[in-house]
Design a protein that fits this description.
Strand content: over 45%
Largest sheet: 7 strands, mixed
Structural class: mainly beta
Order of helices and strands: EEEEEEEEEEE
Shape: globular
Number of helices: 0
Distance between the termini: 40 Å
Oligomer: single chain
Amino acid sequence: QVQLVESGGGLVQPGGSLRLSCQASGLVFGAFDVSWFRQVPGKERELVAGITSTGNSTNYADSVKGRFTISRDNTKNIVTLQMNSLNSEDTAVYYCSGRHRVYSIIEYWGRGTQVTVSS
């Protein structure tokens, strides 16, 4: 059974940091590109950051460039999202998604973790 489990969310003050993790199991993790998305109620899901299966390439939404860093450790089947200088607009549910690097129709999602930035 394939599982992507997010963790690390919580309440943080503006200007603070959080580190999200996406732990994968039940799949050949090194064959999957992984992305972090976020969603606010009433709005569409937004791509935050992505990393290729090998970790050689990353991409970020303009709104998080310079503040967020995505990385992965294929030996541990984990992708992390380091989030710094958080502000209220970063408040959302954050989801991890894995998409096969060749067969893109094969895609898995986690259940999300809540991030709330508030004083």
